[in-house]
């Protein structure tokens, strides 16, 4: 599997595919079983658990903030909880860090804690570590690709180069895709350590693809934005309609890309369906 700096195109077309929530059915389970419940436990919100968890899933899975950074999603959820249920201690400090930190990671948060003694920052880091531990305990058999993904990638790889473009952890992406026999249909794996999705697509374009021969396949507004920033096409995998989306990709969208008829009406139809699905 080549590195981004060494990557060379083999075919005239390129399809970039996100992992979590797009190819792999891992996003829902992580939020429903790990992110939300760990927040309820960390802040002692059991009294309002059902309503809070429903709202957490709306923010992170089913609306236009789908795929938001974990700390941004946390700050949004806690502000609503502060206003509706009970005060969250020094929430302003967490919000300030989320808004101003150049990096939103556990390491960056620990550095902020070293500089400023804050209950909300400490609890946010404790929550994030608990989430990671909880995700690691999820049964492997419950982290699977969506129905139709392998068939779609196999079909696409006959005519196009395939790049995984994901913001997930590299080791997790490699393990999951290898376990289900998907890596054999890919040419390069670009994950969290490679840079933003927009950056990765831009670097891949330097291999010599024309922009109307490149498609980003994703499930979140960030994927659409990464495609648009680079002037390439976007194909959405619709949340709660993933099987249907992958079927259409194989039976219709792929052919339109290869026949150079993807743009215009079809592209707009796909974007409209994507935006409508996340209202």
In terms of topology, how is this protein built?
Blueprint (H helix, E strand, L loop, with lengths): L12 E5 L6 E2 L1 H16 L6 H14 L7 H15 L6 H10 L5 H10 L3 H18 L7 E2 L3 H9 L2 E6 L4 H10 L8 E3 L6 H9 L8 E5 L2 H10 L2 E4 L5 H17 L6 H13 L2
Parallel strand pairs: 1-4, 1-6, 4-5, 6-7
Antiparallel strand pairs: 2-3
Helix pairs in contact: 1-2, 1-6, 2-3, 3-4, 5-6, 7-11, 9-10
Q: Your description of this structure?
A:
The chain has 279 residues and is of the alpha/beta class. 54% of the residues lie in helices and 10% in strands. The protein is built from twelve helices and seven strands. It has helices at 27-42, 49-62, 70-84, 91-100, 106-115, 119-136, 149-157, 170-179, 197-205, 221-230, 242-258, 265-277, and strands at residues 13-17, 24-25, 144-145, 160-165, 188-190, 214-218, 233-236. The strands form two sheets. A five-stranded parallel sheet has the order 5-4-1-6-7, sandwiched between helices. The chain has a two-stranded antiparallel ribbon with strand order 2-3. Strand 4, helix 8 (170-179) and strand 5 form a beta-alpha-beta unit. Helix 5 packs antiparallel against helix 6. The longest helix is centred in the middle third of the chain and has 18 residues, at 119-136. It is globular and about 55 Å long. The chain starts with 12 loop residues before the first strand and ends with a helix. The mean pLDDT is 95.
């Amino acid at each position: 599997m080549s590195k981004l700096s060494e990557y060379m195109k083999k075919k005239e077309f390129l399809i970039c595919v996100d992992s979590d929530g797009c190819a792999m059915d891992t996003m829902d389970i992580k939020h429903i079983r790990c992110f939300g419940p760990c927040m309820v436990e960390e802040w002692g919100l059991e009294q309002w658990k059902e309503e809070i968890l429903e709202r957490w899933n709306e923010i992170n899975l089913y609306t236009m903030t789908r795929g938001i950074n974990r700390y941004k999603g946390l700050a949004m959820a806690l502000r609503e909880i502060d206003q509706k249920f009970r005060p969250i201690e020094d929430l302003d400090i967490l919000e300030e860090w989320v808004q101003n930190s150049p990096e939103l990671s556990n390491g960056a948060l620990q550095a902020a804690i070293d500089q400023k003694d804050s209950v909300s920052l400490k609890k946010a880091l404790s929550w994030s570590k608990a989430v990671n531990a909880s995700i690691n305990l999820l049964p492997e058999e419950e982290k699977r690709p969506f129905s139709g993904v392998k068939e779609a990638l196999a079909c696409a790889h006959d005519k196009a180069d395939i790049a995984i473009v994901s913001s997930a952890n590299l080791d997790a992406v490699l393990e999951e895709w290898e376990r289900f026999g998907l890596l054999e249909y890919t040419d390069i794996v670009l994950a969290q350590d490679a840079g933003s999705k927009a950056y990765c697509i831009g670097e891949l374009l330097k291999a010599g693809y024309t922009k109307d021969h490149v498609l980003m396949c994703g499930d979140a507004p960030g994927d659409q934005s990464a495609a648009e920033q680079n002037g390439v096409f976007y194909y959405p995998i619709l949340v709660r309609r993933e099987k249907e989306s992958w079927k259409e990709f194989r039976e219709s969208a792929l052919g339109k890309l290869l026949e150079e008829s993807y743009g215009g009406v079809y592209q707009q139809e796909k974007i409209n369906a994507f935006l409508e699905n996340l209202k």
